[in-house]
């Protein structure tokens, strides 16, 4: 025995972070305790505030601490253009790219029948509701360029076409098999600009 | 703009952890918010408890949430043997090794006059106080095998010798499981000089 209970608990809790193993967690705990307790307290407070205060935007379903997020609320954005993505991280990535000025809609991942994730589970009915009777003239499908992401895009395209809405897919400037979240802004901007009609 | 203030604060606070850059912090924040808020709350609580509740053992100066740590308090440990280390992390490492059953004393790093860290700053007077008039018969100097660690060990040895206490230094040699081919010359020279009879 060498860790006291509070230190042991802290190390275990740090291992709850993605990519943090036992050695890293131990190093983090020690660093905070020995060198920077203020950073530790600050992190505790930031975690608590975020876990309690951050919910989802009622309109686009991205992470937001207000009922309607800043991007949905911004009157300068183009209501005619709706970009559909798989996760809030993807919204962040597209925003960082800086070239898109339309609206967003965030799915809960991609279709995956084998995991029990059908259209209902990932929020496709809510997307149709969002689009119908709205000013949206074009839906850009920006799901990941993976097999599942493509399948999800095609499924959604099939539903939107009959509604007379233009449906496009981000261009193949994005490398196949990559994840949108990790792609650089320039590539993403190209992919948005070079979008092609689908279906 | 794409992160709301609470998310931005959380990402910034996570960057206070050692080895966590902006991308990793973003991934951690998203993972907690999207997949595991319970882990986030748990971490907040563990951090708060540890930052407030963990202090230093009055006797050995390792991190402890009690005035005297479990290792100093354990009556089954050998009072005659005192192992001197540079940090609480080193205590943990020696404890994990499992073979040492004496007591510990933790310095605040090593001597570094250039940084204004003299004997007083790293706790050498407290070490002498701890040893004098105690049951300690042998002090094992287990500071790091670096130039500064060696210098610190030699300095302490010079102070303890006149007190009639046996002073030893942890052995230098090849680490178990290592390959000779990749071990530096200094270590090899030490390993050869410190060879022991076999069979």
What is this structure, in a nutshell?
The first copy, chain A, is of the alpha/beta class. Chain A is built from nine helices and seven strands, in the order αααββαβαβααβαβαβ. The first copy, chain A, has helices spanning 5-14, 22-35, 37-53, 70-73, 88-97, 119-122, 124-131, 147-160, 185-193, and strands at residues 55-56, 63-64, 81-85, 103-106, 138-141, 166-169, 196-197.
Structure, described:
The structure is a homodimer of 199-residue chains. The first copy, chain A, is an alpha/beta fold and 199 residues long. Chain A has 2 domains: 5-53, RecR Domain 1 (Helicase, Ruva Protein, domain 3); 63-197, Dna Topoisomerase Vi A Subunit, Chain: A, domain 2. The first copy, chain A, is 45% helix and 12% strand. The first copy, chain A, is built from 9 helices and 7 strands; from the N terminus they run αααββαβαβααβαβαβ. Chain A has helices at residues 5-14, 22-35, 37-53, 70-73, 88-97, 119-122, 124-131, 147-160, 185-193; strands spanning 55-56, 63-64, 81-85, 103-106, 138-141, 166-169, 196-197. The first copy, chain A, is elongated. The termini of chain A are far apart. At the A-B interface, helix 1, helix 2, helix 3, strand 2 and helix 5 of A face helix 1, helix 2, helix 3, strand 2 and helix 5 of B.
Low-pLDDT regions of chain A: none
Overall spatial form of chain A: elongated
Work out the helix count of chain A: 9
CATH topology of the largest domain in chain A: Dna Topoisomerase Vi A Subunit, Chain: A, domain 2
CATH structural class of the largest domain in chain A: Alpha Beta
Give, in order, the helices and strands of chain A: HHHEEHEHEHHEHEHE
Q: Sketch the major β-sheet of chain A.
A: 5 strands, mixed
- How many structural domains of chain A? 2
Largest interface: A-B, 59 and 58 residues
- C-alpha-based Rg of chain A, rounded: 20 Å
Distance between the termini of chain A: 63 Å
CATH architecture label name of the largest domain in chain A? 3-Layer(aba) Sandwich
Query: What is the helix content of chain A?
Result: 40-55%
């Amino acid at each position: 025995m060498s860790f006291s209970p509070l230190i042991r608990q802290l190390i275990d809790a740090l291992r709850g972070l993605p990519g943090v193993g036992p050695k890293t967690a131990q190093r983090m705990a020690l660093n905070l305790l020995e060198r920077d307790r203020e950073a530790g307290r600050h992190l505790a407070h930031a975690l608590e505030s975020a876990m309690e205060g951050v919910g989802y935007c009622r309109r686009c379903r991205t992470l937001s601490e207000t009922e309607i997020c800043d991007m949905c609320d911004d009157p300068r954005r183009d209501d005619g253009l709706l970009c559909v993505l798989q996760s809030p991280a993807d919204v962040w990535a597209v925003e960082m790219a800086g070239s898109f000025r339309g609206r967003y809609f965030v799915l809960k991942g991609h279709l995956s029948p084998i995991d029990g994730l059908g259209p209902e589970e990932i929020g496709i009915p809510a997307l149709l509701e969002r689009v119908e009777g709205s000013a949206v003239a074009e839906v850009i499908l920006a799901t990941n360029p993976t097999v599942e992401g493509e399948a999800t895009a095609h499924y959604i395209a099939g539903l939107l076409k009959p509604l007379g809405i233009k449906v496009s897919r981000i261009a193949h400037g994005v490398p196949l098999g990559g994840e949108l979240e990790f792609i650089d802004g320039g590539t993403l901007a190209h992919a948005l600009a070079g979008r092609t009609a689908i279906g």
